[in-house]
Each structure stands twice: as C-alpha cells, then as structure tokens.
C-alpha cells in the first residue's frame, strides 16, 4: 500500500469521499485541452487505494462512484455546449445533463470497486472489473466510451499500444500499472516514474509512407446557432463552394457533416454548382435525406457531373441528440432530440459499409459520433484503404469537446493501422497517419481548407484482427473465477469455523 493510505484511512468517510472526488477530477487533466498525460494515473491509483480502505462493499460502491463522478463531470464539461445553441429553450437543461451524465458514468466505476470488494478485495479482481466496466460502457445502451482512460495516452508512446491491445487491453495494462504503484511502495515509485515517462514520450519512427493522392478538407466554420439561419445559409454554402474551386484540382474533396441545409431530394441544383467548382474532382459531403422509413443523417459521393453515386446512412445515432429513447414519453414532456431536423428524429442506417473511391481505394465512412466506437470501425465488411470521418463538432463547444473528439479519431487510426481523413464543420479538420500522428490540420473555429497528401495504409494491426473478443473472454473468465474463489473461501471458512461453545 502507498505511504498515503494510512493517512486516508484516518480520514472520516466523508473525507475519503472528497479525496476520491478530487482524484477523479485530477484525471481530467490527462485529456484535451490540458493533455497532462500522467494525470490519468491519479484516479486509477486512487481506485486501488479506495479498495484497500473499504471495509464493506457499500463503502467501496460509494468511493468508486465518487471517483467516477469526479472524473466524468470534469472531463465532459463540453456536454453543456449543445444546450446553449438554443439557450432560450434548453440552457436550463445543461447542468442537469452534466450531473446526470456524471452520475450514470460513475455507476460503472462504482460497480467495479464494489464487485472487487465483494469478491475479496484483491487488486487483480479490480483490474478485471474496472476494465470490464469500461468495456460495458462502450457497448451498453448503445455505448458511450468517451474519455476512456486509454484515450489519455494517444499523444504518447504508450498510446501505440492501441495497435496491439485496443482501448480495453490498454485499460487493463493501465490498471495493472496503477495496482503496482498503489500496493508496492518502492516498486510503485519506480513504476510511477516509468509510466509518466512512457506516457509523455512522443511516438518516434519514420514518417508514414504516402500515396500519390491529394485530399482537400473543407472547413466552413458555421456556428451551430447560425447554421440553419436562412439569412446565413448562403454564406456558408458559398464559402464551401469557393474553397472547392480554389487552387489546383485535388483527387478528392471532402465537406463536413450536414454541409448542405437541404434534403437530398431537393439538392441537385446545388450539386451541379458544386461539381463545376470541383472541376472534375469527386466530392464527399454530408446531407440529410428522406425516405418512407424516415429521415437519415447521410453522406453522399458526387461524380464529376454532380450525380450522387453512393450513399451512406449513419447507423450509430446519438441518443438524446439525433433520436429520443422512449419518444412518446419525452414528446409529452415537450422534450425533443437536440439535433433532430424532423419531428420523429433520425432513423439508423443498416450498418458499416465501404465506399469505392476509385484510384484512392475504398473508404470506411464515419459520421461524427461513429468514430468514438472502436468496435464499429472494426466491424467494417472488409479492410478499407483509409477511414473517412465527416463531423459537425460545432455541437461540442469551442474548446475541449472538439479536441477530445479528434483524440478518439486518432485512436481509431492507431487501432486499425489506417490513415484517417477528417472534415469538421468548425474543426478540427485533419489528416492522420496510421500511427495516429496529425500530418495536416486546420485550427479550431477557423474557416478554410487544406490540401494534404493521403498517407498509405499500414499493415493490419493485431487489434484489427482480434477486436475486443480476447479481452471480453479474459475478463469473463477472471470474474467468474473470482466469484468461484469467493464461494470456495466462504465454504472453507464455514467448515473450519469452530462449533458454538467449542
């Protein structure tokens, strides 16, 4: 146990809760915009200390929740930004959204610590339970793996482990390091220094190979509260057309999510203008479309004649953003999804698909939030030549949200060993190589465009071949083993206990 543990044990329980809250909040410094990577060890080490302090499962549950609550509300302050777009009607929801998100996300960490205490309080059980909680957070109720501890490593050499282990294997490794630091004083000090160094070093190695193809990324910088304003629409549409017509003709032009404020069925006149501006280059852009099934958040490709050649419908929608769970209940309460453009919200597309990009190869399209999910990217029907994300990060505010979203896009590139191109309405538009390094980018909240050479795909990574299955099986086997061990220990204690009066 660390030298600080006896002092924490001497604190009243409310004091221990306060320490857990503070340590969780300190972990937010590991993420953008601060990027103090070693800070991620603060909540992880504290979690193992809290386990050793907890005499009961209930206390472990409370301390685990406090740790998670402090971490998530500090990391995800950007979640209040969407409620400021229509501030007169929705600003009052912002603090409730942040607090409720922190409560919900904190329950995952609370469950991990409570299970570990219930199973006997061994650090290895918490390693598995905590990683399992993060795995569940990525999948359960459509998933929300934002701000996973492994996300904090993307800037450093340790983040390259994503190619081998993926986000959940890297989480298991992180908790292993934290357990050693928390339970072995001298070894822990050495591990703390090594972990801080490894997480802070930038990935080295030669620059990635490049293709012969130039990509143009368009960033119109349309603030969300102006994007659908009829008086402002021509400004943003014309800005994107002008950027498409500028300079030498690239091999591909990419506009961001919902780049056009029209339905697909009404957009052909604008497509003709875009094709003229593109001068023969294919164009990818985001638009909404309507069918008998409902409204879709879509991506289309345009050929040199301005004709739609391929359509992809976003399949992983944002709950409370693009659709409402229990829509009848929320409609009666007068609450609608923040980003929906129709009364019924959006309809999910059929799933991941590849787009034929001609000489550039194939692309896996990702619309906004879909780049958050490692398993969605891994579910592509075949290995693409590159990943292509279009997004409208104007919803995420002016600081931490877009930067954290970019960090997750970089994670996907490392995990798959593939380049990723990213066109974002308000930024950060970027070209990312298979090592997760940014080779070209536009600053946040600035209009403009960049021409950059598309990096070549790297070899398939181990994680791209295995996905989350090995870690899921390992965690299940380990947690089942912990349950069986607890049952056997209790039976043995019952047999060995002296008879009453003996």
List the helices and strands and how they pair.
Blueprint (H helix, E strand, L loop, with lengths): L4 H6 L2 H15 L13 H13 L3 H19 L11 H4 L3 H25 L4 H17 L22 H22 L1 H16 L9 E10 L4 H4 L5 H13 L6 E3 L13 H11 L4 E9 L2 E9 L5 E6 L13 H6 L22 E2 L5 E6 L6 H5 L7 E6 L8 H17 L3 E5 L5 E3 L5 E4 L6 E8 L6 H5 L2 H28 L6
Parallel strand pairs: 1-2, 2-3, 7-8, 8-9
Antiparallel strand pairs: 1-12, 3-4, 4-5, 6-7, 9-10, 10-11
Helix pairs in contact: 2-3, 2-4, 3-4, 3-6, 3-8, 4-6, 6-7, 7-8, 7-17, 8-9, 8-15, 11-12
Describe the structure.
The structure is a single chain. 45% of the residues lie in helices and 14% in strands. The chain is α/β, with parallel strands linked by helices. A six-stranded mixed beta sheet has the order 5-4-3-2-1-12, sandwiched between helices. Strands 6-7-8-9-10-11 form a six-stranded mixed beta sheet, covered by helices on one side. Strand 3 and strand 4 form a beta hairpin.
Which tags fit this structure?
12 strands, alpha/beta, 502 residues, six-stranded mixed sheet
């Amino acid at each position: 146990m660390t030298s600080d543990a006896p002092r924490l044990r001497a604190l009243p329980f409310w004091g221990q809760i306060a320490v857990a809250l503070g340590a969780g909040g300190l972990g937010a410094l590991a993420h953008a915009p601060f990027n103090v990577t070693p800070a991620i060890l603060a909540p992880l080490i504290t979690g193992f200390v809290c386990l050793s302090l907890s005499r009961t499962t209930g206390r472990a549950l409370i301390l685990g929740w406090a740790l998670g609550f402090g971490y998530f509300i500090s990391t995800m302050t950007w979640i209040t930004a969407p409620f400021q777009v229509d501030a007169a009607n929705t600003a009052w929801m912002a603090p409730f959204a942040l607090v409720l998100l922190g409560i919900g996300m904190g329950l995952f960490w609370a469950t991990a610590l409570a299970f570990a205490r219930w199973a006997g309080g061994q650090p290895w059980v918490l390693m598995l339970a905590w990683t399992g909680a993060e795995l569940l957070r990525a999948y359960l109720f459509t998933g929300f793996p934002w701000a996973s501890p492994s996300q904090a490593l993307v800037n450093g050499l340790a983040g390259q482990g994503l190619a081998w282990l993926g986000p959940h294997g890297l989480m298991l490794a992180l908790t292993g390091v934290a357990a050693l630091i928390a339970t072995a004083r001298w070894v822990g000090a050495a591990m703390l220094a090594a972990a801080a160094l490894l997480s802070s070093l930038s990935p080295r190695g030669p620059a990635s190979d490049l293709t012969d193809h130039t990509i143009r990324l368009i960033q119109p910088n349309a603030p969300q509260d102006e994007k659908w304003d009829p008086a402002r629409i021509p400004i943003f549409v014309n800005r994107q057309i002008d950027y498409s017509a500028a300079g030498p003709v690239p091999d591909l032009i990419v506009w961001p999510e919902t780049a056009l404020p029209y339905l697909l069925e009404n957009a052909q006149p604008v497509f003709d203008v875009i094709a003229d501006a593109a001068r023969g280059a294919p164009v990818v852009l985001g638009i909404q479309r309507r069918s008998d099934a409902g409204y879709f958040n879509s991506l289309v490709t345009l050929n040199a004649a301005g004709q739609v050649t391929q359509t992809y419908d976003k399949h992983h929608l944002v709950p409370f953003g693009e659709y409402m769970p229990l829509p009848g209940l929320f409609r009666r309460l007068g609450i609608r999804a923040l980003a929906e453009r129709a009364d019924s919200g959006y309809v999910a597309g059929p799933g991941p698909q590849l787009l034929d990009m001609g000489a550039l190869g194939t692309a896996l399209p990702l619309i906004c939030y879909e780049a958050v999910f490692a398993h969605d990217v891994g579910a592509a029907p075949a290995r693409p030549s590159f990943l292509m994300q279009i997004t409208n990060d104007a919803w995420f505010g002016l600081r931490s949200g877009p930067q954290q979203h970019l960090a997750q896009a970089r994670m996907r590139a490392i995990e798959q060993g593939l380049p990723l191109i990213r066109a974002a309405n308000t930024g950060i538009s970027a070209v990312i190589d298979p090592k997760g390094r940014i080779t070209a980018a536009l600053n946040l909240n600035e209009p403009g465009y960049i021409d950059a050479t598309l990096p070549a795909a790297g070899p398939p990574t181990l994680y791209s071949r295995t996905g989350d299955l090995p870690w899921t099986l390992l965690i299940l086997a380990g947690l089942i083993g912990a349950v069986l061990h607890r049952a056997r220990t209790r039976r043995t204690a019952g047999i060995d206990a002296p008879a009453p009066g003996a």
